């Protein structure tokens, strides 16, 4: 009598392979002429905390995470100046925007891959579009934007980094409407990526605006055709349940999901995940960062007036080329 064990093992292996293939479907279409970009959103935690959650303890965990993931673009929230002063000298592959002033919502980008188009990026966010009475009792939270240009292809794209109010729906709703207004006013019709701690779960009206499921209304109330942004994580993991991103240094997975990478029209999603990195019960922040690998088509890059600055491909060593091909920022390689 033959043992059924080998057949059972084969069946389990086949089922596991099917699950792996089906859990995160590949985006439609081949990569073709696409720029692959690994994007992270990461709230660093503003408030000072006692040990073991103080910044001096968490700093090494933040560095370890960024080095391991090596994202090409990072939207940081609650990024104190002293945090950036400690991190950036140890992350020479990155440049930060803005470089001075209010830096709570700093954008990091890979210097080896991108250049900043400072003429169309907005660092000061001085303009407030809504009457104060219409913001509820929350704080006015405006986006920080940077236009980056891929040095190899010449493709430009925008990153809007956000940190919405944590108390009032009305404030978050106005922030979403102002964000859409800013995006409409951008100088070039380039792809748009949103990062942020939106302090909003999936059923929040602010996210409905960003997904194009609710009339945006302009900042003064005029209606307009909605822009539609994709929740990168839910696109690939629609049935996932352990999706919390705020964990209050406890590492729990069933908390609120309030951190997002959202992809605008023309951007395909290759992967999306929640980064639950920790060591010995300690975590880099009270939020889990989130990341997505995005594909931006370059077919029209040659038609973009601002993107003629293309570097030769032969200036990359194989390791750097592989890291860039996977969407990341080459660590351990001179920027």
Evaluate the radius of gyration. 21 Å
Number of domains: 1
Annotation field: number of helices = 7
Can you name the CATH architecture? 4-Layer Sandwich
Query: What's the CATH topology name?
Result: Deoxyribonuclease I, Chain A
Percent helix, as a range, is 10-25%
Characterise the protein shown here.
It is a single chain. It contains seven helices and twelve strands. It starts with a helix and ends in a 10-residue tail after the last helix. The longest helix has 19 residues, at 5-23. The protein has a single domain (38-325), classed as Deoxyribonuclease I, Chain A, CATH 3.60.10. Strand 1, helix 2 and strand 2 form a beta-alpha-beta unit. It has 335 residues and is an alpha+beta fold.
Give a brief outline of the structure.
This protein has one domain (38-325): Endonuclease/exonuclease/phosphatase (Deoxyribonuclease I, Chain A, 4-Layer Sandwich), CATH 3.60.10.10.
Secondary structure layout plus pairing:
Elements: H1 5-23, E1 34-43, H2 55-69, E2 73-77, H3 81-87, E3 94-97, E4 107-110, E5 114-116, E6 144-150, E7 156-163, H4 169-184, E8 192-197, H5 205-210, E9 230-231, H6 232-236, E10 259-263, E11 267-274, E12 290-297, H7 318-325
Parallel strand pairs: 1-2, 7-8
Antiparallel strand pairs: 1-12, 2-4, 3-4, 5-6, 6-7, 8-10, 9-10, 11-12
